[in-house]
Amino acid sequence: MIRMENVTKHYAEAAMPSVENLTLEVPEGSIVALIGPSGCGKTTTMRMINRLIEPTEGRIFVNGEDVTHVDPVQLRRHIGYVIQSVGLFPHMTIAENIAAVPNLLGWDKARIDRRTAELLDLVGLDPKDMLNRYPRQLSGGQRQRIGVARALAADPAVLLMDEPFGAIDPIARARLQDEFRQILSRVRKTVVLVTHDLDEAIRLGDRIAIMRDGRIVQYDTPDAILSRPADDFVANFVGIDRAIKRLSLFSVADAALAGLHAGAASRVAASVNLRDALSLMVAGNTDVLAVAGEDGTVTGHLTREAIFSI
């Protein structure tokens, strides 16, 4: 768990604090997305957790320990960190990059080799193909996967991510986001994610903290933020299409109706989100879709009214 209590960061040359009297609790095993306009203090907030930026005031606890009293170098070795530019060492192989922190922690070679192979498999890359390659030989998506693997190498309880998928093209970004969520379902971590992309925050975050001028203006689940914005700033930030965005939080299975429907000429998988299902309806000029299970068998149907009732 991460807890920030009345944390302020005030740079000497600035008239106003970058972060002001911020209190935030990140439950153990959850993903919290920090989002807001440029300059709102979201990246500063995240970097104070591993003391890449030192707070001016306040206290920060990670798993019950006040990190302001911990050696910052040792602290960072036990907190995973993923950034947009990945930050892989270009002169080191993929195996050496992943092994960087375990080596610093004094792990033996056999343990490091096992962990490296395990992590490459976890992020969907073949160890035989990757171990001896260099970052320049990888695609952007592959480098980002290696960045995640390196951050998980020492099995940290906490993972900090700063715009991790921002440099990836939109199609690959959505796929990596889904894969990352699946990875976290297998390796329970407490994650703080900084993003400028509301769709990413909705897709990945268990909770979202919307920031403005160094303060949190709303901290809640994606559903609550989209359905009940705290004020006009939040309403404008999440957009007039927030009701459509909210549909991405639910699957077809959540709204499907039992039985076949004679008017259902097109199919949709039960696992598809309702936002995409509605798009299929609009594209097909229909008010009803047949719902198919994993094996392709039709198990029910979905109507426009059922989507709108969510």
List keywords for this structure.
310 residues; alpha/beta; six-stranded mixed β-sheet; four-stranded antiparallel β-sheet; globular
Summarize the structure in words.
The model has no long low-confidence stretch (mean pLDDT 92). The protein is α/β, with parallel strands linked by helices and 310 residues long. The longest helix is centred in the middle third of the chain and has 17 residues, at 170-186. The strands form 3 sheets. Strands 6-7-8-3-9-10 form a 6-stranded mixed sheet, with helices on both faces. Strands 2-1-4-5 form a 4-stranded antiparallel sheet, with helices on one face. A hairpin with a 2-residue loop joins strand 9 (207-212) and strand 10 (215-220). It is built from 15 helices and 14 strands. It is globular, with a radius of gyration of 22 Å.
- The helix tally amounts to 15
Strand order of the largest sheet: 6-7-8-3-9-10
Total number of beta strands: 14
Rounded Rg: 22 Å
Helix/strand-derived category reads: alpha/beta
- The gross shape turns out to be globular
Element-level helix/strand string: EEEHEEHEHHHHHEHEHEEHHHHEEHEEH
- Return the average pLDDT rounded to an integer: 92
Strand content: 15-25%
- Between the first and last Cα atoms, what is the distance in angstroms? 32 Å
| Share of helix, binned | 25-40%
Low-confidence runs: none
